[in-house]
Specification:
By secondary structure, the chain is α+β, with helices and mostly antiparallel strands. The chain is about 40% helix and about 20% strand.
Length: about 450
Amino acid sequence: MAKSTARNPKGMRDYLPAEMAKRTYVFDTVRRVFERFGFEPIETPVLELRETLLGSNLGDEAEKLIYHAQHPGAKEELALRYDLTVPLARFFAQNENDLKLPFRRYHIAPVWRGERPQKGRYREFYQCDADIIGVRNAAAEAEVIHIVYTALQELGFTDFTIKLNNRKLLTGIGLYAGVPEEKLPGLYRTIDKADKIGLDGVRKLLVEEGLPAETTSRLVDLLALDGRGDISQRMAALGHLREEMDDIPVAQEGIEELATINEAVEALGISGDYLALDFTMVRGLGYYTGPIFETVITKPDNLGSVQGGGRYDELIGRFRGQSLPTTGISLGIERIIDLMDMLNLYPATVRSTVVEALVTVFSDDLQLETLKLAAELRQAGVRTEAYMDPRKNLGKQLGYADSKTIPLAVIAGPDEIKQGVVTLKRLADAHEETVPRAEIGARALALLSDS
């Protein structure tokens, strides 16, 4: 039989148990935050109808990255989900009669995009989304921003900035500068490159794309406004924009929304050290209709975006015929996990194994007792592995436990079995105690809680 090559598709990964322990810690932390804020879990299929994804205003670039998935002879044209937002819109329209407004959902699941793999960017990856459907006011934005702030703090990040902007304001700035309305989508794409090429690079590109120098200067001057600092400094930047564009209704609407959001997050106690107005931030997906947000890790250096989101009031209307106000965030969980490795943010309690105790075995005729001891420990709530190779001596079995970072070894030789006792050994500090077999579960849990 010919040997097959063992390899993953590009941009898709396996996870060893030690990696899964870290991923589980991150997912569990985020899940607890979502639920603490009153968000409820949902699940949707990994496959959607192709028309569902392609008709949702993802944008031309995004649609090129969708994986099409077709079964031979199947009549339905299917695709792997690109994100969790479009499936939410379809889900709500389809299940609306069974849901109450406002609807607060979270969804933690894999998505697929056919982009070029690189560090922190994969073709198969998880998203962690939280969205609020049915709330028109800025309280919804403040709530999801507060989720981002809380989740990152609980994961151990201390240096990050949540950037705020508004698609209405971007449209208003374009109109103020004299950009023809039909050229606004292209303007968004160019401005979105500012974090890579700087505003001087944006200025140059806009001129190359045919915008007059005066228009470009008016545009860049507003984009360059400094929106960092405490709330008074952020409000001052918005005040400047309000005066400059007092005759552009869409700009005024976007400014008022940003001002209200800033007041709300201030009331929630989120320090200005973690917030900034960034008028160059666009968010590439076409379904955003108002406030948008993005979070970047800032030290050491700028380590890139770990969250995106915003308001998309029209997307659900595509499936139900009438729009509904909706806002939400998506955590870039894969980049967060990579950064937590880089910055060593995992607590010592995150071990490379889920096993808490290893029951050793002395001989073939004691294998059954090993299994029984393991069952007793599991009944007490201790995650337990029973060793199953009596040919290995006790030293090798303990070495095995140590190499897997199993914290507790359970030792019961012939003499202990006869006396109805067992020895518990905590491997981190070599602490040992012999206890009656009837107390094995309680004492094991006590030793584990002290470790």
